[in-house]
UniProtKB/TrEMBL annotation:
Required co-factors: [3Fe-4S] cluster
PROSITE patterns hit by this protein: 4FE4S_FER_2 (PS51379)
Function comment: Ferredoxins are iron-sulfur proteins that transfer electrons in a wide variety of metabolic reactions.
Protein name, entry field: Ferredoxin
InterPro entries: 3Fe4S_ferredoxin (IPR001080), 4Fe4S_Fe-S-bd (IPR017896), Fe-S_cluster_ET (IPR051269)
UniProt keyword list: 3Fe-4S, Electron transport, Iron, Iron-sulfur, Metal-binding, Transport
Record domain 4Fe-4S ferredoxin-type: where: 1-29
SUPFAM superfamilies, per the entry: 4Fe-4S ferredoxins
UniProt source species: Streptomyces dysideae
GO molecular function: 3 iron, 4 sulfur cluster binding; electron transfer activity; iron ion binding
Superkingdom, natural source: Bacteria
Amino acid sequence: MHIDIDKDLCIGAGQCALAAPDVFTQDDDGFSTLQPGGEDGTGDPMVREAARACPVGAITVSETAG
Ligand code: SF4
């Protein structure tokens, strides 16, 4: 699974960090960013919840083979 955050869309609502705090956090400017090692948390079912929770749809979760 691959997580992509479109920082041009992100408005810093923080919903993703609330939904999946092990995977998303907010940077110094309040925009969403992956936690260190956050890609490792892609098996977390809350990642999809976070993508849904994002009000601007900035989070894309894509399946990767393997
Ligand atoms: S929920 Fe969406 S808009 Fe809010 S911080 Fe996360 S990526 Fe950005």
